[in-house]
Each structure stands twice: as structure tokens, then as C-alpha cells.
Amino acid sequence: MSIIKIISSTFIISALLFAPLAAKASENETESLYFKKIDEADKACAEGLWHEAENALVEALRAEPANPSNVLLISNLGIIRFNMGQDSLAIATLNDAHSMAPASVTILSNRAKVLAANGYDEEAYLDYSRIIELDSLEISARLPRCLYALRRHDFRTAKSDMEFMEQNFPGKIETEIAGAAVRSGTGDFAGAIPYYSRILLERKDPEYYSGRAYCYLLTGSLQEASDDINSALAITPADGELYLYRAALNKMRYRPADAEADARKAVELGVDKTRATQFLSNQISDTMPKRK
Question: Domain of 247?
């Protein structure tokens, strides 16, 4: 089974599987045009040659339009078109695949990822929810559904998803991410810190340093917050959000000049000025910056 991986801007696009369509073909049998084109598409995807992969799959579909395996090819074609930057066509292609196999978790998952990458959060949320209805143990859908529920302030669903993951997938990185998000998102900042710490044992990602730093700030652990902000800045020195956090840290350490310098740097790097105003001259308040 061949595996093709694709990456999007908001969430990471997971592995895409090409079904072993030729598994039953005799080794001595002359390979058909259909399977030749599938093989060409597979190899093109492995090399990131998306235009060539698209052409090969289209030719395969034309060669055997009635082949029942075409639904998988159409789903893969949708992901290929997404990688080509043809977002609207990718969604339309995945919609076609879904209409052919409405209970396919693979197709729903592919469509949800493309929808999410294009900002169709409500539609992606519905696809992830449908996946969970079809397969409650599909953790790749459970985590994003949990995170979307938090954004919708549907704390009941988010907490339910987190608890399900803790019961069925203890120790999994997805479970730790859900725990950190739900606890920090519902104001339990002290409770979120151990989750972030376990995540950071596996993933030295600035997002998680930043999340833990925020929790440390809210619980008064200023040195720990400083360490995490510095660790994150070492990885992404142009992250304005981190400078805003450091402005808050400097304010709490009674360093208004340093707080203002960091706030101005945050604005320079794209942070909304209204979020940094409290750290500017004569406007220092006791309010922590709200997370995006």
C-alpha cells in the first residue's frame, strides 16, 4: 500500500492511502492501462509532481469509468488538486467522492482536512462529527472535533471528547493536546501545565511552549514563563504573539520600558495594536493579553 503525505497551513494533512487495486492481478498478466496510470500517479505523488499525478488519475478514470474502485481514485484526485492550489475544484472533487460513498471515513477525513485548510470550519466540524458517528475510535477526527468545539464555546462536547480520548487513548499525543486545550480553554491553567509538559517531551514546538508560557503567566510562575517564551523565540524569532507574552511578563516584573519595547515589536510583527495598547506608555493595565 503506497502512502502519500500532504501538509496544509492550519492543521497537518495526514497520510493518504492508495488502495492496492492490483493486488489480485496475476503476476504474469499484462498490466492494464488502468493500473499503469494508477502506478504513474502513485509515483508522481511520491515526488510531489501533482500535475502529472492528476493527469494520470484522470486517464485511469477514463480508461475504466465503471470500476468500483474509482471512488478512492476520485478522493485521491481531490487531495492532489488541493496540493496544486485548486481549492474549489478539490472540494468539488471530494464532494463527488462523498456522494458515491457517503459512509467512507477516508473520504470524509480527506474532505474535512481540505475544508479546514480553506477556513470552512463549520463544514469541517460536521465532517469530523460524522466520522465519529461512523467510527467512535477514529482519534484523527476526535482531536480536531474537540478543538473545533472549544472554538465554538461548546465546552460540553470538547470535554466529552477529551474524556473519551483519556479513557480510550491514554498517553497518546493527541490525548495530551486535547487535555491541554480543554483545560486552558476553560480556565484551568494550572491543570493544563502537566499536559503541555508531556507534549513538549515529544514535540519541541513553539505552539506548545507558548501555550505553557501563557499558563505559567496566569498562575504567577514568571521564571518558568520566561524560559518557555525564550525557548519558543529561539525557534520562531518573528512570532509577534510571543513578544506580546513577554510584554505581559515584563509588566508583571515591573519593567514598563521593556514591556513597551516588546509590545511595539509585537505590533511590528503583525499583532493587532489594540491588543498591545495596554503595554504602551501611560496605558499599562492589569489585564493579561487574551489569546488568539
Answer: 229-292
